[in-house]
C-alpha cells in the first residue's frame, strides 16, 4: 500500500511519529517527511535513523503557506501534531484552539489543494463527551476531518480519523511520571476508582496502518483495547510504594469514553475495532459490512469487557522500556 509513496507526518518527532516512521521505513516507501517545530528533536531523529529517504521540514500546522510547501508531491498525510497536555490547554486555551482546530483546517485545505490521496488524523478518547479544552478542540478537529470529505469537489482526497486511549510510555503519560517519583517511596494517585483505556505504541501504529488500507473517507476508527485501573497500574510499577490519594485534577474524568451513546446510533462493530460512520448523504453508498452496535451502547473504560491484570501491565511496561 505504501510502496513508492511519499508520506508526511505532522508532529513526526513525537512518540507516535518516531515509532510510525521507523515502521514504514522498513518497507518500500519513496520518501518520508517529518513536519514539526523542534529543530533539536529533528536533528536527534536524523542521527538515530540515518535513512536517505527521510526528510525534515521545520514548520507549524498554524502556518498554511508552510504546509502548502511541505505537501508538494505528498501522497499520504498522518496528522499527529497537537497541543496535548490537558493542563497546558486549560491555561492557554486559544493556543490550543489555534493548533488543534485552526491547524486541522489548514491541513484539510492544503491537502485538497495539493491533491493528497489520504489523510488520517489522530484523535483521543478525550474527544468523546469532552470535559476539558484539549478534548473539546480534538472533537472539533474530528468533525472538521469528517466533514472535509463533503467539499473535496472533483478532487479525490479522503479524510478519516483514528481515536484511541492512553499510550503506554508516551511522553506525558503516567508511566514515566510514576517511574520518576517512585524513588520517594510514595505515588500520588488522583482517585482509586479511576480507569483508562490502554494501548501500546506498536498497536497504535498498526491500527493507523490498517485503517489507511480500509478507509473510504469520513470514518472515525476506534480499536478494541483493554482498560486498566489506576491502582493496578501503581501496583505494577511500584508495589512497594505507599499511595497518596490527591484528587482529580482540573479537566480530568473518572472514566474515559471512546464511543458515546449518541455516537452508537451510527457505529458499526468489527472483529477488533469499531467504526463511527458519518451522518452525511454522500456516505450512503459506502456500506460497512460490520454489525451495528446495540441501542444504548457506550464504549467506556469503566464498563469495558477487556481488562489488564497487574501481571499483564508489568509485562507491557517492561516491553515498552526495552
Descriptive account of the structure:
With 322 residues, the protein is α/β, with parallel strands linked by helices. The chain has one domain: Rossmann fold (3-Layer(aba) Sandwich). The protein has helices spanning 15-24, 39-49, 64-70, 86-91, 93-113, 133-148, 174-181, 201-214, 230-237, 310-321; strands at residues 6-10, 31-36, 54-58, 76-79, 118-124, 158-164, 166-167, 186-189, 195-199, 220-223, 227-229, 242-245, 257-259, 267-269, 273-276, 291-292, 299-300. The strands form 4 sheets. It has a 10-stranded mixed beta sheet with strand order 3-2-1-4-5-6-10-15-14-16, sandwiched between helices. Strand 2, helix 2 and strand 3 (54-58) form a beta-alpha-beta unit. Helix 1 packs across helix 8. The longest helix has 21 residues, at 93-113. It is globular. The model has no long low-confidence stretch (mean pLDDT 93).
Give a brief rundown of this model.
This protein is α/β, with parallel strands linked by helices.
Contiguous helical run count: 10
Main beta sheet: 10 strands, mixed
Q: What is the SS-derived class?
A: alpha/beta
Rounded radius of gyration (Å) = 20 Å
Estimate what percentage of residues fall within beta strands: 15-25%
Query: Strand order of the main beta sheet, please?
Result: 3-2-1-4-5-6-10-15-14-16
User: Which word captures the global form?
Assistant: globular
Oligomer state of the chains in this structure: single chain
Helix content: 25-40%
Spatial separation of the terminal alpha carbons:
29 Å
Amino acid at each position: 500500500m505504501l510502496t513508492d509513496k511519499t508520506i508526511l507526518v505532522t508532529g513526526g518527532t513525537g512518540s507516535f511519529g518516531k515509532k510510525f516512521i521507523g515502521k514504514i521505513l522498513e518497507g518500500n516507501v519513496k520518501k518520508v517527511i517529518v513536519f514539526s517545530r523542534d529543530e533539536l528533536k529533528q536533528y536527534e531523529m536524523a542521527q538515530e535513523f540515518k535513512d536517505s529517504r527521510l526528510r525534515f521540514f521545520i514548520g507549524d500546522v498554524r502556518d498554511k503557506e508552510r504546509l502548502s510547501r511541505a505537501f508538494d508531491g505528498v501522497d499520504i498525510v498522518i496528522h499527529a501534531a497537537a497541543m496535548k497536555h490537558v493542563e497546558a490547554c486549560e491555561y492557554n486555551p486559544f493556543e490550543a484552539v489555534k493548533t488543534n482546530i485552526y491547524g486541522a483546517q489548514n491541513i484539510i485545505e492544503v491537502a485538497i489543494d495539493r491533491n493528497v490521496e489520504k489523510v488520517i488524523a489522530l484523535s483521543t478518547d478525550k474527544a468523546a463527551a469532552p470535559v476539558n479544552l484539549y478534548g473539546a478542540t480534538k472533537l472539533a478537529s474530528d468533525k472538521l476531518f469528517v466533514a472535509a470529505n463533503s467539499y473535496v469537489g472533483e478532487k479525490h482526497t479522503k479524510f478519516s480519523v483514528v481515536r484511541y486511549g492512553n499510550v503506554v510510555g508516551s511522553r506525558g503519560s503516567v508511566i514515566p511520571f510514576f517511574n520518576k517519583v517512585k524513588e520517594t517511596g510514595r505515588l500520588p494517585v488522583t482517585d482509586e476508582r479511576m480507569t483508562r483505556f490502554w494501548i501500546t505504541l506498536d498497536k497504535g501504529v498498526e491500527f493507523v496502518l490498517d485503517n489507511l488500507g480500509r478507509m473510504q473517507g469520513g470514518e472515525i476508527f476506534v480499536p478494541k483495547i483493554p482498560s486498566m485501573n489506576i491502582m493496578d497500574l501503581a501496583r505494577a510499577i511500584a508495589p512497594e510504594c505507599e499511595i497518596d490519594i490527591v484528587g482529580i485534577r482540573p479537566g480530568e474524568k473518572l472514566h474515559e469514553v471512546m464511543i458515546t451513546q449518541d455516537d452508537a446510533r451510527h457505529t458499526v462493530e468489527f472483529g477488533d475495532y469499531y467504526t463511527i460512520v458519518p451522518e452525511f448523504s454522500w456516505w450512503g453508498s459506502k456500506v460497512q459490512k460490520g454489525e451495528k452496535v446495540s441501542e444504548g451502547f457506550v464504549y467506556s473504560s469503566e464498563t469495558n469487557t477487556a481488562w489488564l491484570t497487574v501481571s499483564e501491565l508489568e509485562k507491557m511496561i517492561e516491553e515498552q522500556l526495552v
